[in-house]
Specification:
This protein is an alpha+beta fold. The chain contains 16 helices and 14 strands. It has three domains: 276 residues, no CATH class; 78 residues, no CATH class; 40 residues, no CATH class. A hairpin with a 5-residue loop joins strand 2 and strand 3.
Length: 418
C-alpha cells in the first residue's frame, strides 16, 4: 500500500497516528531468584508506599506502581520447566508503555521508535532503583508487541460518529484461522461478540478494533475506585472520536519477526529498530487491516450500485458485483456472507470482492437510515492526509531556505507555459 518510507514532520499536527502502544519483555532467571526479587520489591514498597504487589489466579506475582501510572508493570512466574535443559527457572516479565515510561501521559497518540529509545533510560533507572536482579533493558527479549493505528473520526471522516464506524467495522471479514471473541450475555443467555469492539483471535495474533473512549472510561472508573486514576475527564473527552485498530503480536509472531531480523543480519541492538520501526508498524497494520476491513470506501447500497453502473461493465459482471453487495447487505456482515459459499463458489465470490476493491468499494454498505452517501477508508485517508502534511512541511522548509522560492517557481512555470 505504502511502499516508500514516510519520513514524518518534526511535529505532526494530526490527531490520528500509527505505531505501537505496549510491549511485553521477558527475562529468565535460571538461579530461581524470583522469590528474592519479590522480597526486594516488598522492601521498596515498605519504604515508598508506591508499589502494589499481589498474586493472580495462576500464582504469578504482579507488581505495579500504585499512586501513579509509570508505564511499567512486572510479573514474576516461578518454577517454569525448561525441557531442553531439564531444569526449572523463574521468569520476569515486564509490560511497558513507552510514552508513559517517558513521562508523556498521552493515551491517544501511538508510540514510535523514538519514544522507545527515550524510554530505555527510564526503564534502566527504575530497575536499578529496585533490584540488581532486574538488570538492564538489554537483558530482555521482546515477547509481545501491540501495534496500533489511532484514527480520529472527526479528522478522517467528518460527518459521522465513532459509534457508526465501529458498527461498520463489526461487519467486516474474519480471516481464516481467526475466530471472533465472544462472552456470555446474561440477557440472551448465549455467547455474543462484544457490542463496542471487533475482536478476533488466532494462536499468534489478536486483532482488536474499538472505541478508545470506552477503554479510557473503564480505566478511569477503576482508578477512581482505587483513588489511583491517571485518566482525566479531559483525556476521556478527547478520545470520543478515536477508533483504535490494534494488532497484538503474541510470542509466536514476535519470534517469527525476530527470525526475519536475524536473516537480514540485524544485530541485537538494531533488532528492536527493525521490529518497532516505522516500516514494520505500517506493514503489520496494513496487512491485517486489508485482511479484515479492506481498503475500499464505505458507500450506501444505492451509491455503491450507482458507482458500479457508471463503469458500463458488461451485464454479467455488473450483476455479479451488485449481487455480492446485496448478499453482504442482507447478511449484515461480510464474514456471514462468505460463510454461505464453499469451494469454487467461494473462490468466485472472493474474486468479486477483489473487483469491488479495485473500484474502491467496501462490500459492507452504509445503512440507509444514516443518510450518509460515502465514508472514506480510515487507513487510506490517514495516509493521504499524512502525505499532504509532509508535503506542506517540505514546502515550508524550502521557503525558509529561500524566501523567494515560490516566486521563482511561479516565474519558471509561466515561462514554460508562455
Amino acid at each position: 500500500m505504502e511502499n516508500s518510507i514516510l519520513q514524518p514532520a518534526l511535529e505532526s499536527h494530526m490527531r490520528s497516528s500509527l505505531g505501537f502502544h505496549t510491549l511485553t519483555l521477558s527475562k529468565p532467571s535460571y538461579l530461581c531468584k524470583g522469590h528474592e526479587l519479590i522480597g526486594q520489591f516488598m522492601e521498596v514498597s515498605k519504604k515508598t508506599g508506591n508499589l502494589q504487589i499481589y498474586s493472580d489466579k495462576y500464582g504469578n506475582v504482579k507488581i505495579k506502581f500504585y499512586k501513579r501510572d509509570m508505564g511499567i508493570e512486572w510479573s514474576v512466574r516461578f518454577n517454569v520447566w525448561n525441557e531442553r535443559l531439564k531444569l526449572p527457572y523463574d521468569v520476569v516479565e515486564v509490560k511497558i508503555n513507552p510514552k508513559t515510561l517517558c513521562g508523556i501521559y498521552d493515551y491517544i497518540t501511538a508510540a514510535t521508535i523514538r519514544d522507545f529509545y527515550r524510554a530505555i533510560e527510564n526503564f534502566d533507572n527504575i530497575s536499578e532503583s529496585i533490584s540488581p536482579l532486574l538488570e538492564t533493558f538489554r537483558n530482555y527479549e521482546l515477547k509481545r508487541i501491540d501495534y496500533c493505528a489511532n484514527f480520529s473520526v472527526n479528522e478522517l471522516a467528518p460527518g459521522c460518529t465513532s459509534e457508526q464506524i465501529i458498527d461498520l467495522i463489526k461487519r467486516s471479514d474474519i480471516p481464516s484461522a481467526f475466530t471472533e471473541y465472544t462472552e456470555y450475555d446474561e440477557i440472551s443467555h448465549r455467547k455474543k461478540p462484544k457490542s463496542d469492539s471487533f475482536y478476533l483471535m488466532c494462536q499468534s495474533v489478536h486483532i482488536n478494533c474499538y472505541r478508545k473512549v470506552v477503554e479510557l472510561q473503564q480505566r478511569a472508573e477503576i482508578g477512581n475506585r482505587r483513588m489511583t486514576s491517571c485518566v482525566s475527564q479531559a483525556t476521556v473527552d478527547e478520545a470520543r472520536d478515536i477508533i483504535r485498530f490494534e494488532v497484538q503480536c503474541k510470542y509466536l509472531k514476535v519470534y517469527s519477526l525476530s527470525k526475519e531480523a536475524k536473516k537480514a543480519k540485524y544485530t541485537v541492538a538494531t533488532e528492536f529498530e527493525y521490529l518497532l520501526g516505522d516500516r514494520m508498524c505500517r506493514n503489520i497494520i496494513e496487512y491485517y487491516f486489508k485482511k479484515t476491513i479492506g481498503y475500499g470506501d464505505w458507500y450506501s447500497l444505492k451509491d455503491a450500485i450507482a458507482k458500479i453502473q457508471s463503469h458500463n461493465f458488461n451485464r454479467q459482471k455488473e450483476n455479479r458485483l451488485i449481487e455480492a453487495l446485496n448478499c453482504v447487505n442482507q447478511c449484515r456482515s461480510l464474514a456471514k456472507a462468505k460463510a454461505l459459499y464453499q469451494g469454487n463458489d467461494l473462490l468466485a465470490f472472493n474474486r468479486t470482492l477483489n473487483d469491488l476493491s479495485d473500484l474502491n468499494i467496501n462490500p459492507v454498505t452504509i445503512p440507509r437510515d444514516w443518510g450518509i452517501k460515502q465514508i472514506p477508508n480510515l487507513l487510506c485517508e490517514y495516509y493521504r492526509q499524512k502525505r499532504l502534511e509532509q508535503s506542506m512541511y517540505c514546502l515550508e522548509l524550502l521557503e525558509k531556505e529561500d524566501p523567494n522560492y515560490f516566486r521563482k517557481m511561479i516565474r519558471e512555470q509561466c515561462r514554460s507555459e508562455g
